[in-house]
């Protein structure tokens, strides 16, 4: 069963979504403990002096094995850039892989086939990193073009995770 989703941008022939549904003001991520665990791990790595601020930090190990399983997917890798930009890859045996992105007010998922998942994740990381280094937060124009280019979606369970009826 696939999750119902809204398109991140309004296009001709699709339902227009309100700003909360389309990334603006949404502060919840895929897993309730995700942000806390990610930031805690990042701060620990920074304190130990093993990372600089302007590099990608792999925080996958900050999640327990149980936390890495989410809604028929499995967290393969979760990386954070300067404690602001986050890109995660979730594998799935039942459907496409999911690349979760979080950058300022931009949240969403890019669905991708398994054989293209790692390359697409790297492409997304480079674009988000470049914009962050230049602007420190995503502009409306960046969000619009990024979401159109990568077909970013916002599944309902990013905000609400109710069991199937």
Could you name the key traits of this structure?
globular, six-stranded antiparallel sheet, alpha+beta, 165 residues, single chain
Quaternary state of this entry equals single chain
| Cα radius of gyration in angstroms | 15 Å
| Large-scale geometry | globular
Termini separation: 12 Å
Main sheet overview? 6 strands, antiparallel
| Tally of separate helices | 4
- N to C succession of SSEs: EHEHEEEEEHHE
Residues in β-strands, percent: 15-25%
Low-confidence stretches: 1-37
Total beta strand runs: 8
The overall pLDDT average reads 75
The helix/strand class is alpha+beta
**Helicity level, as a percent range?**
25-40%
Give a written overview of the molecule.
The chain is α+β, with helices and mostly antiparallel strands. The protein is built from 4 helices and 8 strands, in the order βαβαβββββααβ. The strands form 2 sheets. Strands 2, 3, 4, 5, 6 and 7 form a 6-stranded antiparallel sheet that branches. A hairpin with a 5-residue loop joins β5 and β6 (about 95-105). The longest helix has 19 residues, at about 115-135. The chain is globular, with a radius of gyration of 15 Å. The relative contact order is 0.18.
Please summarize what this structure is.
The chain is an alpha+beta fold and 165 residues long.
